[in-house]
Amino acid sequence: MATFLLIALLACFLVPAALERRARRSAASPYLLPAVDAPPHAARIPMPRGRSRRRYVEDGLAEVDTWLAQQDRTA
Q: pLDDT digit of tens for each residue in the chain (75 aa)?
């Protein structure tokens, strides 16, 4: 009878403690950190190489130049 009582007490106290410990360990995931602690989204996006960036800027300037020229023609 004492053995049964001991096993029942162990089951009542140790099993919930083990489950709680496992839950706390899985809750310590870095993916669950608040958004303030995470790096900004732009930091995760790889930047293109300098030559590509320069090409994007030059293409953008050309688009702006053509748009301004069209606006001048219509005005």
A: 889 988 888 888 877 877 777 666 666 666 666 655 555 565 556 665 556 566 666 777 888 888 888 888 876
CA distances to 9, 26, 58 from 62, rounded to whole Å, are: 78, 52, 6
Integer-rounded Cα radius of gyration of the chain: 31
Domain span holding position 67? 39-74
Q: Which of 14, 39, 68 is nearest to 6 (CA)?
A: 14
Based on the fold, state whether residues 52 and 25 are members of the same structural domain: no
pTM of the shown model:
0.28
**Residues 27, 1: one domain?**
yes
